[in-house]
């Protein structure tokens, strides 16, 4: 590992950082977090599936990860080695040899809060449930994450409608839930990550311009992760 690669790893792979993990060639990602690290290993919180069952690959399985830092997305490759259960369930993987910046305009994500209305599809009847008023957590040109008072299963369709946003206006789109997280077990609050599946291209481009404008404002104010 070169000095530049080592420096980049030290700047991006930080304890407490959220990580999206991909097992082998799978397209589905699992949410995790960096719990600890040393020169040879990365210790990651045990990822869970939709039913809160632990994901445990075979030793030697290739793992790729995606982590956000300084308004950019970074990708790395590693190898699953083992698991541990104390003090909390974790994966033990090899320390990546390098990490690469992987940022496209659609995937630039910024933390921003604004009111929105969400309607969840009733999977059994196909009807839409009554609107639920909530707030966003972050947004990209590819999707939006928001607060919810209950778990929503992966693959469920939701209709979202935002307030009028600068440059964009009101965003109204059908989304698909890609992940449902409950960051605190003692609070009835879920973080729902969703991707747009019916966002007009013109609206997406306006949303991306809005995101980059907000990103520049944050950088100018010295706001960083």
UniProtKB/TrEMBL annotation:
Pfam family, one: PilZ
InterPro entries: PilZ_domain, T3SS_YcgR_PilZN
Keywords attached to this entry: Cell projection, Cilium, Flagellum
Signal sequence coordinates: none
Gene Ontology MF terms: cyclic-di-GMP binding
Gene3D superfamilies found in the cross-reference section: predicted glycosyltransferase like domains
The keyword NADP is assigned to this record: no
Span of domain Type III secretion system flagellar brake protein YcgR PilZN: 15-96
Superkingdom, natural source: Bacteria
Domain (PilZ) ranges: 103-213
UniProt key word Lyase: no
Name the record gives this protein: C-di-GMP-binding flagellar brake protein YcgR, contains PilZNR and PilZ domains
Taxonomic placement: Bacteria, Bacillati, Bacillota, Negativicutes, Selenomonadales
């Amino acid at each position: 590992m070169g000095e530049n690669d080592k420096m980049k790893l030290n700047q991006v792979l930080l304890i407490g950082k959220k990580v999206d993990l991909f097992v082998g060639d799978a397209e589905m990602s699992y949410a995790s977090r960096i719990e600890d690290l040393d020169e040879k290993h990365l210790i990651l919180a045990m990822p869970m599936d939709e039913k809160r069952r632990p994901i445990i690959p075979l030793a030697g399985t290739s793992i790729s990860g995606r982590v956000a830092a300084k308004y950019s997305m970074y990708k790395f490759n590693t190898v699953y080695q083992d698991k541990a259960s104390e003090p909390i369930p974790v994966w033990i993987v090899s320390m990546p040899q390098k990490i690469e910046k992987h940022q496209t305009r659609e995937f630039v994500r910024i933390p921003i809060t604004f009111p929105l209305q969400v309607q969840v599809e009733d999977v059994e009847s196909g009807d839409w449930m009554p609107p639920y008023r909530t707030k966003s957590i972050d947004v990209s040109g590819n999707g939006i994450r928001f607060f919810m008072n209950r778990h929503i299963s992966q693959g469920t369709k939701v209709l979202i409608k935002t307030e009028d946003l600068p440059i964009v206006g009101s965003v109204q789109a059908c989304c698909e839930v890609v992940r449902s997280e409950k960051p605190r077990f003692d609070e009835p609050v879920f973080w729902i990550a969703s991707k747009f599946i019916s966002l007009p291209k013109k609206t997406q481009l306006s949303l991306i311009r809005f995101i980059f404008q907000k990103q520049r404002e944050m950088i100018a104010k010295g706001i960083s992760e």
